Predict the structure.
Amino acid sequence: MKIIKSLTLLAALLSFGALARAQLIDKQVLTLEAADRIAAAAEMEAKKRNAAVVIVVVDDGGYPLVLKRLNHTQVASVDVGIGKARTAAIFRRPSREFEEQIRNGRVASLVLPGATPLQGGVPLMANGKVVGAIGVSGNTPQEDEEIALAGATAFADASSLVSTPPQVSYFPAGQVNNAFEKGRPLIEIANYKVHASHREGPGVVEVHTKDTDIIYLLEGTATLLTGGTVVDGEQIGPEEIRGNDVKGGETRRISKGDVIVVPHNTPHWFKEVMGPLNYYVVKVRSAH
């Protein structure tokens, strides 16, 4: 009888263990050693520029692992740097995107819980997943982000040396549809991004100085202008220029099923949008 009871208890424990494993997933965690290296790379970049900044590295929940306030940096930048890093971590995208949304009229971004809508926060990616973020504050928005990118790039370069093969990224239909509804990236890593883009109206002139855009139109019709010269172009971030008009260029009508490849340094503009427009954009970053 005791043997039967023991076997029954063992079977129950094994069953419970299997059930627990089925409810858990493996998770990559940013180590303190990695956070130190990321902050050190950003600090080196800041010192090259003689920039007085705060550098913050957080985990994927937005909690600080490393904080550096370089000499002569204003104290107020501490909380701002933490906010930028936390925003990039918990929203899984650069904090710059929220600043751009507000600039383009979407003031609702001002009241997003936990968001600091200021340029300078960059997610840290490993195998297509956000494992943390780096935030920099104290200088101009563009320079803050460039210093943060130096830390993020150092992390990406170190991750690429790991011998384990990259994981396959799978996005179920519901997640894809949600990305289109919100017009947000599906995946963003060091040298390429896949965006699920949505437009209801025309945009502004864009120039990506390092990114080639591969556009696949899923739904809708638009007039796309490519080439020419941007009129009164303004650099809004690293390798990103925006404008309101183009001199010259080529205009074409695009619709469902069309594929357009826009090389880096080429102005492009959704000048007219006829109804809702859904399209994938694969961004491939040039090494030069």
Summary: Residues 205 and 269 are 5 Å apart (CA to CA). The two ends are 75 Å apart (CA to CA). The chain is about 30% helix and 35% strand.
